[in-house]
């Protein structure tokens, strides 16, 4: 047996695609080759699962659950989905007059704080757990921010949907709210500064399109190697910042449309990003009915259309804000889930695509986990 074959046989790496849908969660599993997939689920059948996340610190999977009758809560699994435990909350104090309409995101905290977990909810609020997701405390410094009167709900509500802990500094955190914009804390959540300079609010009247807050950011990603480099897909375009959000630069030139929701970033190449443009705010489907993912390998200066293996005719598909993810394999995998239930996958960083799953409920979110064997 050659050394390479022996190494492959010893490799027990598990690759997971965590898919949240309108009617439950699905966990697809493969090995590092990612050629054959096994499907688990649906978990939480009948519940909307707006987000799933894998906690590298503990191996836990968190699920953001929402139901029109039974409300919103967070569940946690410590055995990759075999069993689940429901958390106490998140919920507002009883005398606040507020209710959590939906939990949009659950995000593990900094590695130096292994029990820290964050949750973003509608209406536009942030919660923190210090016990691994069992109990939750509202972050009033953000939830009662002085600019809150200037926040307005987007079509999906007033939602806090992105939470990005700084990999080196446990006191720094970026969050994104639609439609309020990007905010950053540098002191562990005691204070929050708007970070929207250079991003447009094109839906506002002339003369009011460049406010301090009120931008409709759809998705936010951070470079895996440079935490000052972030990208966002905005209601009004695609942007990047090289200084932690202090200034943003438009990257929309070369794309077929400014509008879109989802965004992904390469796990090792900080300048490689992915977007799935929609025709417009009004129509919200792939331009010209030809579904494609667009990739930039130089931080948004140039874009290339990736469509080999994707439906190119009569494919009026749409990808929601959490519907794109990458894995950390080499070459990196890219995953895209549509609002009509198709899950597409590329094992070669977007060059070619295959259909991983079809006939799922509308896909809300896609996340990945690579677990070394």
How does this structure look, described?
The chain has helices spanning about 5-10, 140-145; strands spanning about 15-20, 25-30, 40-45, 50-55, 60-65, 70-75, 85, 100-110, 115-120, 125-130, 135-140, 160-165, 175-180, 180-185, 195, 215-220, 230-235, 235-240, 250, 260-265, 275, 295, 305, 325, 335, 345, 355, 365-370. It is mainly beta. It is built from 2 helices and 28 strands. The strands form 7 sheets. Strands 3-2-1-28 form a 4-stranded antiparallel sheet, with no helix packed on it. Strands 4-5-6-7 form a 4-stranded antiparallel sheet, with no helix packed on it. Strands 8-9-10-11 form a 4-stranded antiparallel sheet. The model has no long low-confidence stretch (mean pLDDT about 95). The two termini are about 20 Å apart. Helices cover about 5% and strands about 40% of the residues. The protein has a single domain, classed as Methylamine Dehydrogenase, Chain H (7 Propeller). The radius of gyration is 20 Å and the shape is globular.
Q: What's the domain count?
A: 1
H/E topology pattern: HEEEEEEEEEEEHEEEEEEEEEEEEEEEEE
Give the helix level as a range of percent: under 10%
By CATH, the topology is Methylamine Dehydrogenase, Chain H
